[in-house]
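Project standup — Tuesday

K.O.: blocked on the structure for the chain from last sprint. Re-posting the sequence here as requested.
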Amino acid sequence: MAHHQILIVGGGAAGITAAAQLKRARPGLDVAILEPSSEHYYQPGWTLVGGGVFTLEETRRAEGDVIPSGVHWIRAGAAAFDPERAVVTSTEGEAIHYDVLIVAAGLRLCWEKIEGLTEALGKGGVCSNYSKHYTAYTWEAIQAFKGGSDGASGNAVFTCAPMPIKCPGAPQKIAYLADDVFKKKRLQAQVIYATATPGIFGVPTYAAPLREVVKRHGIDARYNHVLTAVRPQSREAVFQVKDGDKSHEAVIPYGLLHVTPPMAAPEVVASSPLAAASGFVEVDKFSLQHLRFANVFSLGDVSGIPNSKTAAAVRGQAPVLVANLLAFLDGQPLEAAYDGYSCCPLITGYGKAIMAEFNYEQQPVPSFPLDPTQERWSMWFIKRKILPSLYWNRMLTGGQHERRFIPGVKR
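H.V.: unblocked you, prediction finished:
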C-alpha cells in the first residue's frame, strides 16, 4: 500500500495553496496531491471571461506547472474515504495510506437539478460563468442579445441558486456588466436579477451600496426566486418563489438567461464518514480540524464551515490549517484560528468594483485604508490586473496574504 505523510485530495486553489505553504514551512515533509485534472483554472477570472475582458485561455495553466516542487502528484481522483484506517482509495483502484489527510475537493455543480438546463446550456442565449465549457458563450450571448419590447426578446435574466455556492457575488457581477453593454448599445432591455437569497448580499455593510447599484442600473431584482426549470423552446425560466410560509410558481420569459447552478459537495465526500449532514466535511470552523477524526483537516469550498466560499477565503484558511496540522504532527495544541475571512471583488460595472472583505461576524476587514463600501476604479484595476498575478505567483506558491504588508490596515 502506498503511504504519504500528508495526502491532499484536490489540486485546485485550496489544495495547491495548502501544499505550497506546507513545503515552505517544512521542506522535508512527504506531501502528495490526488488530482485527476491536467488543467488548472483561475476561476475568479471567469466573470471577466463572460464579460469579454479575459479569454478563457488566460485563466488556464497546466496542472503540472502549479504543483509545488517536491510534492508528489497522483493523477487520479478519490473514489472512497476510510478515515478509520487512514486510507483513501483512488479512482485507479490504488489504496493510499496517510498520516494526515487534507480534503480540498471543491464543489460539484448540479446542473441536473434544474429541469431542462443541461439540454439548453450553451445555445439559445442560455449561458453560465460557472463552467469552463460555457463561460466564453456568456460573452457571445451578451453580444448577440438584441433586446426588444416583449419579455421573450427583451428580458436578460440572471439567476442565483440557494446557498452555499462558490463566489456568491458572481451571479450579480455579470448582470451589471451585461447591463453596461446593453446601455452602450442603447438596447431596449430589462435586466432581471432573480435570486434565491432574501437580499442582494448577505453582509449588511455591503448590501446597502449594492442596493444603490441595482437602482442606478435599473435592474429588476427579485428575491426568494429559485430556478427550477428552463424551457428553451418557449424561452421561459421557471421559478419557485417563497412568500413567507407560502410559495408559488413564476414563469419569466427571457431573451438571455445566465444560470447559477445549485452546488453540493462531491458525492464521494458527501457519502463518506467525513461528511456532516450537509454533505460537506465536518470540521471545526476555527481550527479546520475534523470534529471526529483528528488527523483530518479540510479547507476551501468542500469544508463545512459557515463562510463565503471564495478563493480569497483559502488565503485566510491555509495558514491556519498549516499551523494546526504541524502542531498536530508535533503533538502540540492547535492554537491557530480562522476568523472566517473572505473577499468578493464585487464588479458593479466596467471600471468599477467594491472590494468586499469580511469575516464570520459579517464585519468588514478591508486590506486597504479606504472606505470598503465605495465603488472604485482602483478596485476594478486590482480585480482585473493584480489579483490574477497574485493568484498564480503568490497564492499558489505559498505566499502569505499581502494585507499584512499594507500600511494603515488593522491586523
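K.O.: great, moving the ticket to review. The CA atoms of residues 78 and 90 lie 4 Å apart. The chain has a mean pLDDT of 96.
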